[in-house]
Amino acid sequence: MSILKELQKKLPSDADITEMKFEASEIVMYTKNKDFFQNGESTIRSIVRELKKRVELRPDLSITKDPEKTKEFIEKTISEDAGIHAIYFEPELGKVIIEAQKPGLVIGKGGETYRKIKNETCWLPKIERAPGIKSPIVRAVRNLLHTEIDYRKKFLNRIGQKINSDVSKEDDWVRVSFLGAARQVGRSCILVQTKNSNVMLDCGVVPGTGDYPFLDVPEFDIGNLDAVVLSHSHIDHGALIPYLYEKGFTGPLYLTPPTRDTIVLLCLDYIDICQRNGKTPPYSKKAVEKMVKHSIALGYGEVSDITPDMRLTLQPAGHLLGSSLVHLHVGEGVHNLLYTGDFKFGPTRLCDPAWTDFKRVETLIMESTYGGSDNILPQRRDVEANMMEMINKTMERGGKILIPSFAVGRGQEVMSILEGNNFQHPVYMEGMIWDATAIHTAYPEYLSRSMQRNIFRYGKNPFLSDMFKRVAPKERDSIIDSSEPAVILATSGMLIGGPAIEYLKGLAPDKKNALMFVGWQHPATLGSRIQKGWKTLPMAGEGGRTKTLNIDMEIGTVHGMTGHSGRNQLTNYVRRLRSRPERVMMIHGEAKKCQELARDVHKMFRMETLAPRPTDAIRLK
After folding, report:
1. Per-residue CA distances from 178 to 12, 191, 319, 335, 612 (Å)
2. What confidence tens digit (pLDDT) does each residue in 201-225 have?
3. What's the confidence (pLDDT) of residue 547?
4. 434: which residues sit within 8 A by CB, 6+ positions away?
5. Distance CA 62, CA 503 (A)
6. Cβ contacts of 154-157, under 8 Å, gap ≥ 24
7. If DSSP codes are grouped into helix, strand and coil, which group holds residue 96?
8. Is the pLDDT reported for residue 478 higher than 70?
9. Which helix (H) or strand (E) holds 486?
10. Where are the beta strands (DSSP E) in 213-298?
């Protein structure tokens, strides 16, 4: 609490602060001095520079304008072109929430409109982007965070007090335990421990089998877990996080805002998939709500203390919307750890290449999905050309092409390629792809610079093109039976469930049609079996009876259509990092690929490399 006393001393004598407290890594203050609230920005900035803590000044409710009059003023002040969807208040935080299609028009040139609202009403504006496509998930997440303000205020204060507690700085050490994804793709889960902290990076399942991380190792105790950090929302990285809350965890989950929304979508779907397959889900929907209640969303480049001796920064990973490289600064310069999660060190339509400008990295933990010596990916333009060639040939012969796709990331990449190539046939979308795309329209600032330019400057959002048609299950048969050529984008990407299976049953017997894989197929999945050349498949029919499905449609795979880094991109990433690591650990790949990449990176850069085994615990410092 000494830092609050220090802050108090630096404030003007007439600041009239009614409350000062921690909110996670921030300090928030409430003032009854209207002039200080309106004009105290320079004072707050100088305090932030001195204390190296984020400080937010909020109004005491005694100085705020009546909510109805405030709402009238906002509606009168902001241009209709901003597309305001909602205005509501969080009096507990002294904030007015303005949700609009064009937040830039709410902020105004140089922040002029924002300041006008703040100074006239003495409410602190918080501006959110309304999705271009209506999104029940975005709405539900924002509503939950709004209705749980009282709980979150107490929760964030508790976390802040813990972060700012005094801890021993003697005998500093750092170690990591690999509870998943060691010499394996799936169940990513790493426990980072110091004398004072226990932080988990990701907690996913194995696609296809659903195997959990090794949470029964002696070093893991959920009662001592301080925080979880989620790199991105795919199920092999995040599907088991609600399970931690189901088992009593009440600490924070750090992630980007789009990752928060997409992990909710995928976890709810994971529950449904378990139930459809006759399995008991590992957690309830209430646990997903608990996860959201305890989430702390960070933007790229935002430095945040997460424990008394760990500082977190998330940077773009280039893998999918909101995906992050996780950088942990431990102690007062004791050690710096960079965990890549899944990353792409190359441009795609959706994302720019992964970030490299880290000032210090002693240990790099890097994915190795395509780390084998023969995993050289083709040029991106060739990948897109191959994809369009197969699609166009199918259209020319009057067929339909089914593209099983991961809901988050791959589906939107395919959409952007089709739109960018001026595709002239309908693209039918069923399953979670539409819901995931709606979330993409809420966070365009997390997309590539070129896509941001098209959206913000030219008003061209590829996801809003008329070619994309949302399909209800009742329309499925008419699409299959239609003579019209079309593309069908449907989940799941590995054919382990979802509407893609139903389209496969209807389209497979016709040679005019095609099935195109645009993502990695886990060996345990139906997609992998078809990719390997199986022509007859046992399928569940009506009444639970097994029927044989004959595959006569064309089967194709677009190699290189991936959000992962290929072999050359992986080694180039190590080369291009601003800070040269002392050691690199290879995970998230088949055993042979992890070992090959570790061997070759050692030869190339003469640094320590490892390919940890499952449950290995390794001291870094």
Report:
1. 50, 7, 22, 18, 7
2. 999 999 878 899 999 999 999 999 9
3. 82
4. 133, 470
5. 60
6. 155/250, 155/252, 155/293, 155/294, 156/22, 156/23, 156/24, 156/296, 157/21, 157/22, 157/23
7. strand
8. yes
9. strand 486-490
10. 227-229, 253-255, 295-297
Question: What percent of the chain lies above the pLDDT cut of 70?
Answer: 99
pLDDT (0 to 100) of residue 544:
65
Instruction: Quote the pLDDT of residue 360.
Output: 97
Contact status, residue 494 vs residue 370, Cβ threshold 8 Å? no
Taking residue 48's Cβ as centre, other Cβ atoms within 10 Å add up to: 15
Nearest to 437 by CA among 211, 207, 262, 310: 262
Prior bond of 492 cis (ω within 30°): yes
Q: What is the pLDDT of residues 26-40, one digit of tens each?
A: 999 999 999 999 999
pLDDT at 171: 74
Q: Distances from the Cα of 280 to the Cαs of 69, 180, 234, 273, 491, in angstroms?
A: 51, 22, 20, 10, 22
Is the pTM of the predicted complex or chain greater than 0.90? yes
Instruction: Output the six-digit token pair for 525.
Output: 């999945």
Does residue 460 come out as left (phi exceeding 0), alpha (psi in the -120 to 50 range) or beta? beta
Domains of the chain with bracketed CATH: 2-62 (3.30.300.230), 64-130 (3.30.300.20), 151-165+174-374+564-619 (3.60.15.10), 380-557 (3.40.50.10890)
Contact 266, 235 (CB under 8 A): yes
User: Which run of H or E residues covers position 532?
Assistant: none
Radius of gyration over alpha carbons of the chain, in Å? 25
State yes or no: pLDDT of 1 exceeds 60.
no
Q: For 163-187, what is the mean pLDDT? A: 90
Identify the three-state secondary structure at position 194: strand
CA dist 319 and 355 (Å) reads 11
* Maximum alpha-carbon separation in the chain: 81
Please report the pLDDT score of residue 494 as a whole number. 85
Tokens of 265: 């979508």
Q: How far is CA 559 from the centre of its chain?
A: 24
Please report how many Cα atoms fall inside a 13 Å half-sphere around the Cα of residue 45, on the Cβ side.
4
> Residue 469: its pLDDT value, please?
95
Compute the Cα dihedral for 603, 604, 605, 611 and give only its sign.
Answer: negative
Tell me the C-alpha to C-alpha distance, in Å, between residue 486 and each of 18, 399, 406, 414, 480. Answer: 63, 7, 19, 14, 10
Confidence of residue 24 (pLDDT cuts 50, 70, 90): very high
- Crossing angle of helices 432-440 and 257-276, in 10° steps, is 170
What is the spatial distance between Cα 528 and Cα 516, in angstroms, rounded to a whole number? Answer: 12
Q: Fill in the DSSP letter of residue 473.
A: G
> Rounded to 10 degrees, what is the CA torsion of 58, 62, 67, 72?
-90
Predicted confidence (pLDDT) per residue in 102-112, tens digit: 999 999 999 99
